[in-house]
Design goal:
This protein has about 100 residues and is mainly α. It has one domain. It contains 4 helices and 3 strands, in the order H-E-E-H-H-H-E.
């Protein structure tokens, strides 16, 4: 789980998920209300994990499986990705360039 770089408090899984759904680039620390940013490494890791979700749509075409199984794989992959993304989250006090 991420740790605030300002107050050194660990965020819970729920706090991390809740903070991740904001439209702002920075996320407010639930403990000290200071703005925290995803590190560039963390943005790359979470971005790559999210890309796995649309790739599950190719599985039914390649392997000729039923649509119910394909939907189950899609939903399962989405749940796994959104479940592990808070674990992949690392914070910084300043916004970092992606490249």
């Amino acid at each position: 789980m991420p740790t605030c770089k300002n107050c050194k408090q660990d965020w819970t899984w729920k706090q991390t998920v809740k903070s991740g759904f904001t439209m702002d680039i920075g996320m407010k620390c639930p403990h000290c209300d200071k703005k925290q940013y995803l590190t560039s490494k963390s943005r790359k890791k979470t971005g790559l994990s999210i890309i796995a979700i649309p790739f599950t749509l190719i599985i039914p075409v390649l392997f000729e499986i039923s649509s119910i199984i394909a939907i189950s794989i899609f939903i399962g992959t989405a749940l796994i990705v959104f479940g592990i993304n808070p674990i992949l989250t690392d914070l910084s006090n300043e916004e970092e360039q992606l490249w």
